[in-house]
Task: inverse folding
């Protein structure tokens, strides 16, 4: 079942897409015949967000099962952190209504796959999420917290 995006003021899919495109443009395979977004973590996330924007939906049923598991490219943490921070800022902390097939959760999972050993089940709160990231990677958690604070300050949130 798909949920309509209630208001463009609640979710800024474009902000997440822009950050993912920045990661893509830094990739050695970008715009080459070897670039295959469907088999790339970042490309898959970007395609999912664009689809959601086009269709006006939050959830893409079953999408979590299609996250590419064969993407073995190296990603730099400093490239991933801004996009991962944005997913946390865009999350509406749905708690009981949370869906793993929500494009925000889907994007966060794809990004986690590039820099963490295992995915984190989003606990419904950003600070709890940061604590769980810290359990796996203290430096990433520190960079992520700093980026979230910076983005909040830039937007006045």
Result:
């Amino acid at each position: 079942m798909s949920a309509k995006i209630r208001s463009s003021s609640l979710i800024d899919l474009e902000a997440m897409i822009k950050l993912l495109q920045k990661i893509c443009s830094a990739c050695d395979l970008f715009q080459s015949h070897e670039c295959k977004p469907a088999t790339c973590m970042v490309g898959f996330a970007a395609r999912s967000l664009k689809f959601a924007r086009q269709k006006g939906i939050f959830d893409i049923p079953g999408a979590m099962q299609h996250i590419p598991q064969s993407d073995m490219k190296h990603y730099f943490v400093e490239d991933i952190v801004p996009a991962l921070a944005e997913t946390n800022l865009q999350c509406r902390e749905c708690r009981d209504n949370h869906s793993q097939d929500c494009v925000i959760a889907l994007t966060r999972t794809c990004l986690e796959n590039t820099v963490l050993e295992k995915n984190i089940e989003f606990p419904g709160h950003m600070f709890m999420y940061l604590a769980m990231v810290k359990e796996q990677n203290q430096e990433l958690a520190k960079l992520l917290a700093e980026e979230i604070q910076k983005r909040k300050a830039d937007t006045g949130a």
Notes: The chain has one domain: 13-155. The CA atoms of residues 1 and 36 lie 28 Å apart.
